[in-house]
Amino acid sequence: MTRRAPLLVALLAVAAAALAACGKEGITLNAKRGDTAQIKHGAQLFAARCAGCHTLGAAGTHGSATKVNDRERTDGPNLDQRKEDLNSVLFAIRNGGFSGAIMPQNIVVGPDAQAVATFVSRYAGTQAKNPKSPPPAPATGG
Prior knowledge:
Layout: H1 4-21, H2 37-49, E1 55-56, E2 61-62, H3 86-95, H4 110-123
Antiparallel strand pairs: 1-2
Helix pairs in contact: 2-4, 3-4
């Protein structure tokens, strides 16, 4: 049996690696858009901090529900289907979304918040049938 143990361990390691890779698309930015280092940084932060609740293909995230019956309380908007502008994204980051019920306030701050907002505003709504501009974010004192 001692000869089989290393083989079994190797097979389990390969299986674990294969399972860990499932569903991870990674960040795919459009080189033709002339993305800056700030946008790439924003994509990385979005993938790390927002993936559990939001879908955005460019960041390789799938956190939103795809069917109404599968929806959970923490599911955020599918940003592939919803266009957002820079100020609205910054408002949502600062205030915990628009309802303030689930998303943590200030999930990223300062230059990181600006990077995430720039990335999201550039890539959100790319799969929307009729991407409409959202209403302007409420003014914040600051």
